[in-house]
Design a protein that fits this description.
single chain; about 300 residues; mainly beta; eight-stranded antiparallel sheet; five-stranded antiparallel sheet; 17 strands
């Protein structure tokens, strides 16, 4: 099993009405089970506050409950999304005259990676920029499984707004993304892609034959708010599980393969070999990208 496959976004919840099941088939509930990880190199652990998104938030039939995997350190059972969270600090502001000076917007001790994406978040017809940054903490250089020293400083972003005659920083999170040198087990490290299009921000980790997980944010009221999460777990060319959480509609959709993936032959499984379920979940707490310590 891919060590990163169970990791994606662990939500803080607010109280609301009892959840209702929207649609259900004879699904195996263990497809929504997951565990959490302590891979938080360079994260501000002391400021994190994590609250579980548990089986009580889904209307799961009693006979299916024993299929959930309970994390040893918690009374809750998690569905497959998690993140670490903190209250936002005040955002600093900086300006520069042109794109060639973007490196001056980066607060030391950070490295300027470059322009990750262009967008127009405030829809004023001017090109805004999403720039990448990376930490420089020497304590985050660690020995990997091959005995080599690798840089595991986390990465982050700064959104830069085009004001016509100058550029200025808008929002940022300087260390919310994993480094490019995480331990991928027997496989390479997950590959990060960050892209902005209009008001949308998409963050994706791809782990090749083991699948991918991504998060969609929407720019509103001067911040990026999480609106959707998706996770795909694969075994080689075969998709075993797809999970999608839509925060705007408070629904969780889970599609999983019936049986062992090795039994489907060269052509692989067809759509009829999967079972899909849609669950109504409790109203989720608003999650802003500036509040996230680690998104993985």
């Amino acid at each position: 099993m891919n060590k990163y496959a169970p990791l994606a976004v662990l939500f803080l919840l607010t109280a609301c009405n009892q959840p209702q099941k929207v649609t259900t088939d004879d699904a195996t509930a263990d497809t929504v089970a997951t565990t959490t990880s302590n891979t938080t190199t360079a994260a501000e652990k002391s400021e994190d506050t994590n609250t579980g998104f548990s089986k009580e938030d889904l209307d799961i039939p009693k006979e299916k409950e024993e299929s959930f995997v309970v994390e040893e350190s918690s009374k809750d059972t998690y569905i497959p999304f998690c993140f670490s969270f903190k209250e936002s600090k005040q955002q600093y502001k900086a300006t520069c005259k042109d794109t060639a000076q973007f490196a001056t917007l980066v607060k030391a001790p950070l490295n300027y990676i470059g322009i990750w994406s262009t967008c127009d978040v405030n829809e004023d017809g001017k090109t805004d920029y999403l720039i990448g940054v990376k930490g420089t903490d020497k304590e985050c250089f660690e020995e990997d499984m091959r005995g080599e020293m690798v840089d595991r400083n986390r990465r982050g972003f700064i959104l830069v707004i085009n004001k016509g005659d100058h550029f200025e920083t808008d929002i940022y999170n300087l260390n919310c993304f994993l480094s490019e040198n995480e331990d991928g087990g027997v496989y390479y490290a997950p590959e990060l892609t960050v892209g902005a299009d209009g008001k949308k921000l998409n963050v994706e980790y791809s782990h090749g034959r083991y699948g991918l997980w991504n998060y969609t944010f929407n720019y509103a009221n001067g911040n990026y708010e999480l609106v959707k999460c998706f996770r795909e777990e694969n075994q080689g060319p075969v998709t075993e599980t797809e999970s999608q959480l839509d925060i705007s509609s408070n629904t969780l959709k889970i599609k999983h393969l019936n049986g062992d993936w090795t039994t489907y032959g060269e052509d692989g499984p067809s759509d009829s070999d999967y079972t899909s379920n849609t669950y109504k979940v409790k109203q989720l707490r608003k999650v802003l990208i500036t509040d996230i310590t680690t998104l993985f």
